[in-house]
Structures
1.
Amino acid sequence: MGDDYRFIGKATQRRDAVEIVTGTALYLDDLRFQNLLHGKVLRSPHAHALIKKIDKSKAEALPGVKAVLTWQDIPDWKGGTPRKLRVLDKKVRYVGDAVALVAASTEEIAREALDLIEVEYQVLPAVLDMDSALKHGAPLIYDEFPGNIIPGGTIAFGPNCLKGVVMGDVEKGFAEADVIAEGTFGYENIPNALPPEPVGAVAMWEEPNKVTLWSTSQAPYMDKGTLFHVFNRQVEIRCIGNHVGGSFGTKIMCWQVQAYAVLLSRATGKPVKVMFTKEEHMAAFTLRIGSRIHARVGMKKDGTLTAIHGTWYVDSGYYSFTTQAQVAVGSGELMIMAQCPNWDLKNIIVATNRNASGSTRGFGGQELKCSFIPILSLAMEKAALDPFEVLKKNYVKPGGGYFWRDGNWYQYRGIDYSAAMDKGAEQFGWKEKWKGWLTPTAVNGTKRLGIGVGVHGNADVGEDSAEAYVQLDCNGTATIFLCAAEHGTGQKSNYAKLVAEVLQIPLDRISMTPADSLITPFEFGPVGSRGTYAIGSAVINAAEDVKRRLFEFVAPKLGAEPQDLETVDGVVFVKGYPEKSLKWRALGYDRTLLGHGRFEPDFTVCNCMMSFVEVEVDTETGKVTLLRVVLATDVGQIIDPQGLEGQLNGALGSAGIDSAIFEETILNHSTGHILNANLMDYKWRTFTELPAMEHVVLETPMPTHRFHAVGVGEVATSPGPSAVLMAVSNAVGSWLHEYPVTPDRVLRAIGKVGYSARGGKK
Amino acid sequence: MTANKSDRVTRETAATRHVGFTVNGQYHEFRVGSGGIEISPTHTLSWTLREVLGLMGTKVSCDSGACGSCTVIMDGKAVLSCKVLTIECDGKTITTIEGLRDPKTGALDPIQQSFIDHTAFQCGYCTPGMIMTAKAFLNENPQPTEEEIKDALSGNFCRCISHYQVIRAVMSVVEKEGEHGR
Amino acid sequence: MKQFEHHDALSIEEAVALLSDYEGKAKIIAGGTDLLGALRDEVFLEYPEALINIKTIDGLDYIRSDEKGLAIGAMAGLADIVKSPVVKKEYQMLAEAAYSVATPQIRNMATIGGNLAQDVRCWFYRYPRRIGGPMVCLRKGGKFCSALAGDNRYHSIFGAAALSDISLDLGKVRKGCFAVGPSDIAVALIAMDASIVTTKRSLPAELFFKATALSSTVLDSDELVKEIEIPKLPMGAVQRYDKFTLRKPIDFAVVSVASMLTLNNGVCEDARIVLGAVAPEPVRARKAEQVMKGRIVDEDVALEAAEHALAGSSPLRMNEYKVEIAKVLVKHAIWG
Ligand SMILES: Cc1cc2nc3c(=O)[nH]c(=O)nc-3n(C[C@@H](O)[C@@H](O)[C@H](O)COP(=O)(O)OP(=O)(O)OC[C@H]3O[C@@H](n4cnc5c(N)ncnc54)[C@H](O)[C@@H]3O)c2cc1C
Ligand code: FES
Ligand code: FES
């Protein structure tokens, strides 16, 4: 559609394809280092305790042990928002919290040394959930956070960081409403995005204050910034990225494992690797945030929203780093999907004695929507409205707007996504299948079918600055200098495509530097949905910049003006006069040209994803089967069809749709242990249980992007969970309001099982 | 402890036990012990492949038998190298992802090529295990149905959800083989 | 993994001798799919000093059938059992049970002997040492089963296994261990009235799987499973193995039911119905079997039998749903 491109939109081989299929793609654990030591972490058995005494003498005496560090041995390095959490502290705050670090010549010795460290704890009462954390007189996890409430706002988003949404007059809004729904609903199963590769880092310290880090992070430049503050702005940091075995937004923040490796390297003078095991990854690395909302929603008979009023309770676990940012982005995202003149939506971030929450695909918005849409559903039911129509109606349209993370109001200047939604509904057969609220689409004996719909969109397609260089060489090649590690989205290959398109040279003429903060300019990281729009634009700008320089250099030699020139396959010629040409070789063997590209944040556009799901519920056993998923979106311009397909299919993984079906992190409510920190008890979708998956992808050119594209990969997961809840409720004919809808809950909803201690509070 | 035991135990240790097996066509022999290049009884095959033989293509994700990313082919069968003790591999023939290319021409295995053609991966971490599982399966059953392929791959974790593209990649190899057969 | 010694046994006798040499401090390794996980996570109260490999013993992996029935060597692989033509044809319940285990790769490695002797899968018991574990449950020297106060959605609905082998009084014991028997194959074997032949004895499967809070079987520490014998099944017996899980494959059963019904013109002549994952050991639904005998099998009989099968259950705080699912599975076992 639109322009006829040479590379963009064509199926091309991923740049790293051969490496991946031959096992030669190098992930962190595949890198080899001379004299490498192995680091391990001793972890707390208590959810909340003070360390009274640590005796590490036996561990230190074990042959092969090079360092044992406790909170007493390390500098006052701190992370979190606000920066209050020490890398090792004299207090432990969840089961699995780091107590001591060991470096040894082998992993086995390091592990053995952990057993030799003797720790005496003074166990403190713990608060394992928001209810107990917020109780009057509850034990405090941090002295600095009275009531276990973590202050909102993050300086990363500026002094006016969005902390809630207040506008208009909610009382007036409710007065205008035809229906009002109210309730308290949660998305509190803290699922895990769970990339296959565990998190880890290798650090090499150089006295007095330099460190080089290789990590599983996909955002090396961001790490450099994060760690700079963690290390009290006293350490010079170089971060190098490699292949990342999946991230789904989680690995942008690996500060703890990075700090462990750095501390151990600093203590030993040797490179140290700390690689989490899968169970550490699952029990001591970040989860989704826990989300609960108490709200009232006012709506007119035609589905127009009149008021939204309530409080969003956000369970951040034992600390927060990105939670405030997620609250800001999530609140803005709610405004994008629920255009409404009157708002009063506050939020409270709560600390609890469980493993921390952090960044995950869907970044706050998924979590908020999963709790909010059930209330909206009650309103739609009262007004007997079709949810598809209501969601479509209230999604932001040109002329609409929203507050975004920096607290500013943005007038939306993207496209109207209604067309994509309509197309999706048509493909799904929504109109034929929709039979009304709490009404199954079909009943076959004990099996009932139900449908649901959800929507999500994100204005961080254009978040944060990005920079890139593109360098031209006289031999007709180009090199992209960009700090992006490939984590599965195929974006690195897409950037090469963008440059190839601008410079009109074959893809194999383009190389990329490693993601190395010493070599490349600033890049925030492939997070949110910014890969295509923000980073892509920086890359395009760099390519355009170097092309301009090339033309300026060549123009006098061709006796033409730069703007009259064109280049194809390493030859510059005068438009319309192909014979008046010069090869790039004319630059001379002793010259390269460097273009600089920068992207300035722009929050005026957003993407959109609508999910339609159909489920079958077995009313005898309570089992929910996902039969079909249709995802509808508009990407402006497809860059890589196969890459896009993969990203959209990803809706099923990374704590997306399945977080409504069987995914959950199971926290033992009596002790705080995570009981399913393994790949058997944490459920994930297998090859034998794949639903039919269909994509409806429109390409309505986006005016703001050079190639008219907008990224959608991130948002594929987010509309799914609430759609499933809706579908299951419709199938069984009564409301299910807890995630995931496991058989026990379904059987309880249909009255076959009475009391259940699980999620049975409400 | 009885005298018997020490007899039996000495019988084994005194004769310095060796373990030898073939990986990707090359025979390796190790002495059992706890020294640098020796094989400790506790070493798993995935560890030996990666840390001793430097074959980093075999990925370890869960290290607990639950994800399939460490799958290699041993005596024709897909097995989980994180749940095999190296010391028990004596006499075995093992193929890892590094051994799939044609040793003479260096050409990719048709499954590898098909994974590329279908972009049957995103992060690629699960890919070596997927390919090895599919390879062992197609060796045994060259003309499977789509359902059979799904079943064969049902123990392989892929969090990026490359499943649909993987199925297409494997099916396309099956279809091509079928054409050659005709 | 922590260090252990390792021996390749060349005969059953040698394996037994090695086991007794180590005085209970050695473990057999067959396929290793269960054992190596338990060693890695250091779940045993006492870490073994040695592993005795029995893969080096020749001739233990047979699947033989004759007019008396089926004999399976302890080292027969689960994948081979699934594929065996005779098992598929005449003992399909076993093929189904074996197929329901874990994943294709694990079935390529795992043995039937190991499946029967595997350790329980309770998440308190198996809680990994390295993230603040172990959880000191009853099996680890604690006073109580952690499932009593903790998340017990997958635990027993028929009471606990006592610490010592005083006979299990279903539904009554509250002090023991609430972990459920893990083996899928055990459930099928009891339904087929199989016998387990060990190096010390031969006994009906039902008596072999007698659970205490320390073990799911009666195996002594120096005893090996040698063979599984399944009598020829009655002509026309309707067999079925049904396993409920949140997703397939990989998962251990939430509830499973193995059943064998002998019908004559729709009249039930004999029935064996065994429930798995509902108690520390497989539970034979004797009352349910009795109410069916001599009656024409229809939906009402099936419903009645299902009620009887679960009559003695006493679910814990979070697992009442298992009762309901078990009833459904029993009903389907009898009536489609
Ligand atoms: C991801 C995963 C999923 C699983 N899912 C299931 C499932 O759904 N259903 C199920 O039933 N199991 C399941 N399992 C358990 C699986 O390990 C067993 O089913 C398997 O059959 C064990 O056999 P093995 O030969 O590997 O035993 P091993 O691990 O070698 O041994 C297990 C135990 O049995 C003992 N043992 C082995 N052989 C003998 C013998 N001949 N005599 C006496 N003792 C012996 C060993 O000492 C050890 O204690 C799963 C395991 C994993 C890792
Ligand atoms: S790493 Fe071996 S199965 Fe997961
Ligand atoms: S491609 Fe990432 S896990 Fe499969």
2.
Amino acid sequence: MMSPAMRRRLPAVVTATLLVAMIVSGYLRYPKFDGQAIYDLFIDNGFLLVAAIGATFVILSGGIDLSVGAVAGFSTMFAAWLIVRQGWTSWLVILIVLAIGTLAGLLMGAAIHYLEIQPFIVTLAGLFLFRGLCFVIDDNSISIRDPFIAGIAEARFQLPGGTSITLSAFIAIAVLAVAAYVLHYMRFGRQVYALGGSEQSALLMGVPVARTKLAVYAVSGFCSAFAGVLYIFYIQSGDPSIGVGLELDAIAAVVIGGTLLTGGTGTVLGTLLGVLVFGMVKTILNFEGTLSSWWVRIFVGSLLLAFILLQRLMVARKTPAPA
Amino acid sequence: MTEPVLEMKGISKEFSGARALVGVDFRLFPGEIHALMGENGAGKSTLIKVLTGVYHPDAGQVTLDGEVVRITSPLQAQKAGISTVYQEVNLCTNLSVAENVFLGREPRRMGAIHWARMRSDAAQLVRRVGLELDVSAPLGSYPLAIQQLVAIVRAVAISAKVLILDEPTSSLDRSEVEQLFAVMRRLKEQGVAILFVTHFLEQVYEICDRVTILRNGALVGEHMVAELERKRLVQLMIGKALGELEELTEHIRPAVGKAMIRAEGLGRNGAIAPFNLDVHAGEVVGLAGLLGSGRTEVARLLFGADHADSGKVLIDGEPANLRTPNAAIERSIAFCSENRRAEGLVPELSVRENMILALQAARGWTRPLSTEKRDELVARYMKALDIRPSNPDLPVSSLSGGNQQKVLLARWLITQPRLLILDEPTRGIDIGAKTEIQKLVVELSEGGMAVLFISAELEEVLRLSHTIGVLRDRQLVSQIANAPEINADRIMEIIASGAPA
Ligand SMILES: Nc1ncnc2c1ncn2[C@@H]1O[C@H](COP(=O)(O)OP(=O)(O)OP(=O)(O)O)[C@@H](O)[C@H]1O
Ligand SMILES: [Mg+2]
């Protein structure tokens, strides 16, 4: 029989196994699949990783955030507009959009907690608001020619074996490390899990529920904006329709990474695995070359379904163990 | 005389028109164990929740250490030195035992949670109440009684000046209760003031110094336990003298004919060793055994809540496939679970909807009950079980703990099952209602219902059962016919020795 602690990690273990299998088969099947392809996973999916980290906080706390993609898209547009049209200093602009994202999350969290509206509804409203604002700024993309942005976008670290990694990918990994530390080693992290376990119990155990909930959505808002900033480094422009559906990809990655949608169980490292699986699906289909990109969605969709079924099974089996 | 560490004066609290507390005074002295008693719905838990800031009182004031305080949240109460175990286990089942014990007070090293120390400290604290647990396993993987002990461990670990225990002993066995009392005595010596809610009179007389009695939200009186007779205490609680339950006249009823339900070699790995068990129509079979001895597991197998690895179930002599609870419900088996919060009531639904749930499920959703029929059934059982307040439209979560338990019982009684499995049906139920429920069980069995009765209270099992099954270490070690010479000590002996009678 499996110990309960092991059973909780089962989805993450399955994901990890799947990832390794995908990488090995990619390596065997495609001659061009080398070490660099692995780094490219991080480079091409850095923004998804950061967005998914924010989503992990929210989902762990028992909530949901649908505004992720819209906030990210808005961040690219607003930053591009400030830098290109208003001539503001680019690093300052980046700080501003990060602050706006955080504030937006905070406000949504406040609406959810104090007005007792479903997170689904509040963040859906946030999605429409920010996506709308994108198009208020401009219908078309605004390309950014800024030395600071270009500098970061092009910064690469050489790694052994002729491979390299971008600064953006590095930043995404740093965000991951910070998030893992916060969730595992800070009291705030424990409070997030407690909240996701049972809000009622958390309250009675003395968890500052209001503060924790607001903070969780603020973290998600911050990560969404951060994902937007990484987009800017990736494509060096602002685009009103960028990040459409990013929230869904992020949620999918979180679930595939073993976090329960009902909250309270999961880790950001699992989320990393989820993002990498997501990226590997894209990579493999790219290498295949002949398949349409919709196969990515279909494959990820099936994977998601499989994982949700797995979770159901685990919850159904949760009869108390012998004392 | 010393000053009270805590004083509540003129506390009133109304819930949308219903008055839960009316001008209640309460005081608590350091180094004293103070019982708070009253019927189900008297307002005990509400008084506690006002004190810890879960509810805000409509009137009244709280004085802590001689200073008037306004406590607005459980967190603030904790910081002010008030530590609480609430009536229902209110911990997070997704977190590990250690995390639950230390949530909000995790030991840290250079700002980071010190996991190794947290685990070893938790293991040590848990050991002090006589438990050996894997503290890194999620709390939800342990049975309710263990969860209740962990809640107590948590409350005790927060070295507080006021410790509040709202029915902490409801799902504990004698030995755990003894452990708890040892802890309480130690804290008392250290000068901690303890507020203790229980429905067990013996516990009050064993450990409490002073008792405050509430009735219908109002203060009845405060007495020294030593100066108060039991009879008088009960009278104060229920407002009248308690009728005694007549002795069961025919204890040993010969088992006539085929068993209504028979388990042959039924077992499940790690839960319960294969056992044979018969329950006849009109018979009450009681299960006795310590915590974790497999009592609940027997019930779950018979109800199809768990899958058996071996053996079979015969109903009226025919093999029956009880793979799911639904199959069992169709065969007229009802199971009133001990865990009302996780497996029983749906808090958002009304009392009426909760009561009707099992019957509706048995009929299938395509054949809804008529409104009149439904209302009549609900009204009948609300009256029979004296569920208060007697308004079936209230959300069940607004009822007191004991009254919620009655709703769960009513849900299964309404289905008029042939086999009724009761797992700790009188947990958290006040002394008056308890006798009522025991009477009801006797009546039902006389009417031909087969009853499997599980309770941590041996006296209760002895009073009601025709046959007693004794469990030990996940094994049904003995089945004996009840007889006048069989008493709690005899059962305890069997449990201890594991030998059949
Ligand atoms: N949240 C609530 N909303 C509405 N009514 C409530 C709420 N909580 C309690 N009540 C009502 O207040 C009264 C007192 O309930 P309380 O839980 O304090 O009783 P109790 O003495 O603890 O009973 P028990 O022994 O059954 O636990 C009951 O009539 C109950 O229905
Ligand atoms: Mg109560």
3.
Amino acid sequence: MTIRHHLPARLIRAYAAGSLPKSFATVVAAHISLCDECRAQLAAEEFAAGAVLDSLPPLYEPGDERLREALLARLDGAPHLPDEAPPAPMGIFPGPVVQALGGRPPRWRRLGGGIRQEILARDARGSVRLLHIPPGTAVPEHSHSGLELTLVLAGSFGDATGHYGAGDVEVADEGLAHAPVAGPGAPCICLAATDAPLRFRPLIPRLLQPLMRI
Amino acid sequence: MPSGDEPHAGLDEQTRWLLAVRDRRDRQAFARLFDFYGPRLRAMLARLGCTGAAVDDVIQDALLRVWQKAGQFDPAQASASAWIFRIARNRYIDIVRRDTRPMPDALAVEPPPEPDPGEVLALQAEGARLRAALAELPKEQRRMVEMAYLGELSHREIAEETGLPLGTVKSRIRLALERLRYHLKEHKPP
Ligand SMILES: [Zn+2]
């Protein structure tokens, strides 16, 4: 897999800090599962976060002594724990996507125009979905009031900003109006996260909006 | 360079304590880790607006996991503080936000049991230089860097790229990245 479009440092940093909404964190974790370069970048951002932690002025409390004794008493008999990792990848879906799917294959729902989707999670801070776009099909032009992150899992798509193949991430910043078109040959399957409702341009896609529930 | 019988020479205290916990289940070294990181984790949680009983829960739970997971610590892959930071941040999200954090797939390859001491020392030296660079920042800039790494940025601030580490701090992080990237490449199956 040759990845040409990576995560920007600011998103990896925010993921390291734990300040990304879960929708974006899912896309970041999925891309890092596929990309050694961004995995190294994450290690570097965590390295920096550790240095910041070391440099913080400590906040002592009178109860510290008691807290320490309570903790030491819990050490014996505390079992070894494995590293935190998501479930194993399934085909084109990396572990964080398998986790969001609950370990089963996607349950696609038709959106119109041959496009199918499954919404994996949705809350006040954003949504994350899988999209299945037939070869050569255009997604209706839309713009954002926030950020949209799209990770290609299979096939490809292109828009005015470039061409995106498997493993690539597109970061669509606020205001970017784009109309992605799936590449020829194979369907484009991607993981997309948004933090705010999309705004569709033409009239007909507005009818799609309630269907897409975004 | 370290001599053969002094494998931990040149390492910072926190890393030596964590290695003593990993290799010898050393309770005294663990108590030192608690004394160092407990009050710093409290300072981190205070910045996140976390107060009350939850603070002690996160500190205790995070450091208990440090004891339980110490076998996985590899000083060529992470500094002690980065490793402890990651555990504490996940415990905070779990306990306070009552959520789970999506995590990337684990690397297919196990870290070698005895990492190259040269790589460990190189990463340690980067850590010392990064802490020195942080200490030299003007107060306002340092505050911005802390916000970026301790999870205080709002979504809008992340999108707009405020809190970007500047100057020497940024170049130190880039050098650490080169070390970590090299380590990752070296230990990947062909
Ligand atoms: Zn990448």
4.
Amino acid sequence: MTALVTSGNNPAPANASNLAICAQKLTRKFGDFTAVDQASMTVERGEVFGFLGPNGSGKTTMIKMLTGILPITSGDATVAGIDVRKDPEGVRQRIGYMSQRFSLYDDLTVAENLRFYGRIYGLRGTTLDEKIQQTIERNALQPYLDRLAARLSGGWKQRLALGCSMLHDPSIMFLDEPTAGIDPVARRKLWDLLFDLSGHGITFFVTTHYMDEAERCSHLAYIYYGQIIADGTPDQLRDLPEASPAGTRRFEIDAPQVTSALRTARELPYLKSATIFGRSIHALVEENVTQQDIDRDLRARGVQPQEIRPLTATLEDVFVELTYKKQAKEASRA
Amino acid sequence: MLNYLRNLFRGFSAIFYKETVHMRRDSMAMMLALVVPIVEMVILGAAIDTNIRQVNTVVYDQSGVMDVAQEGSSASRDLINHFINSDTFKVYKYVHSDRELNEELVAGRAHVGIKIPLDFDRKLLRGETAQVMVIVDGSDSSTAGTAVNVAGAIGLDQSLQLVLARGINLGQPIEIRPKVMFNPDSRSPNFFLPGLIAVLMLMITVMLTAFSVVREKERGTLEQLMVTPVRPLGLMLGKIMPYFFMGLGEMMILLGFMRVVFRVPVHGSVVLLVALTSIYLFVNLAIGMLISVRAGTQAEAMQSSFSIMLPSIFLSGYIFPRETMPVIFHAMSNFVPATYMINIFRGIILRGAGFQELWLDGLILAVMGIGVLLLAARKFERMVV
Ligand SMILES: Nc1ncnc2c1ncn2[C@@H]1O[C@H](COP(=O)(O)OP(=O)(O)OP(=O)(O)O)[C@@H](O)[C@H]1O
Ligand SMILES: [Mg+2]
């Protein structure tokens, strides 16, 4: 796989049979507004694909087109080898979807929710019972079977929702912000479960706003207001020249009173950009600048840095950088 | 072929299962939906029985022509006093000819006319049955019904007193012959209750399904259903059927109340009544479903329900007879399912009408139901969540 900063018209891949998802110039308009603009992407079987982007950038819209919920305005999409436009029903049998909103029936118990979703996928009799039992074990739901879904905590709700959406053994799962609003431990457990399942050959298409989750994905794409502007593995994205432009390097600066230190740092002539991460500053500076230079110049301005370390770009740096670039490009075009 | 049909209704049993669980969980609301119409029927039914008081009444007493000083004979005066004391009638005028009697009624000054015949005393003395004519203005069906019932009771009571006083036992001395003018069919509650049941059923059934899809839209569960293989018809029928059975049960209860508490006899076939009612329930549930699919929010569904139900009630002939409606309303009433149901109800319950007379109403309702359901299914298929 080669990392790209895409222009939205990459060529069709040759080995289509190995692909779980293949979208080509997928577009969705709501009236005059284009929510997804000629988005192309491919996801190979067994990948955990992370789909990132700011709020309202079109992630959910993309998923809805790929799952056949939302009609496609133009472009092509193949999911599990099936053309979504021609056979949305065929696609539905092979995929599972967990929507961004809580999608269980509050007033049904855990067992009833499982039974309902199993039956609606056409499972009957002993097959149904076996699948339900398997889901209960896999998700450790046994103690909660008779509890109303409304009374489950966030993490367990998500596990149940995941279980319900996988009862029919889908080969591709679409999860729209599955970890939004649940605690770090539950988040970690859910991701462990995803990797476990992905080990069994299931492809995951996951949207998230969490960078630590993005780091764990085997493949990432970044969508910015309808356009996919980056696509590759996390390492490839971190190495993107656009994200760490040629002739620059990054440092992490620890300093007391980090906000006023940031103001001072921004006065340095060789500083390209700087942001606060926790109690430290991430600074992008010209290539020939050293730790000693920064230390000296900050002290000259009254800031006493405790430590200055060289830094590789984080995914967040990459996405922020790409977003600025895109904005600048659009502004200059307008 | 069979497979194709099965495909069309895919997901039905799963949805049916889920909806029955919803109903069980929400049993308070379901009970309320069942009990409210019964309470309403009892209150309205009782109201029309007792709330009529001081109805303007005109009397033409021929029996006392010989007696110049007084109106009528002593026996006839006893009877008239009985009418006055009942509180239901207020005698405001005595007239002296059929023409005058008629004028008072036609002008609407009187709603009841009592006509005591010339030979009233003579017949009573001979132990024959004296007939008293009670003419009731039928244009107000609730007044008319009560007036007829009360007049009958008064006649019976008076007869009883006479029999007890004289010890003669030669049949009923006074017979009240009611005659309803202007709208001879109107006997309430016989006339009123069947229509009321149709209207009550309309209200609960439309409401029950009107929220069912839009609620899921608001909660976000519909989006999840959209990726399952459930088909629109499977979804809709699965949602309709549990409420259908509930509606049918409610219907039976209301009919039971009508029969037992209000003593309205059913002249026709109960089986036919249930069969045709089922179709009507189905139409209403389908209408609720269409409302639900079109609505964006539950509040919107509520509004649409009312904007369908209220005109239906007015146009159906439940309140105003269809025959007297302006042409345009009469034409519109043809598209209101309740119109046919009220016709079916009154037909079977009051007139003893059978399949021959009512098959067309049933067919029209069936076509309406299927049409509305298909419309809802189509709308659902194109819905964007
Ligand atoms: N049914 C719709 N009608 C009109 N506009 C819509 C509709 N659905 C989505 N949009 C618009 O399309 C854009 C993309 O929305 P989408 O929900 O795909 O964003 P997202 O990336 O999932 O955002 P978030 O991170 O907040 O979930 C938004 O501007 C949204 O307002
Ligand atoms: Mg979204």
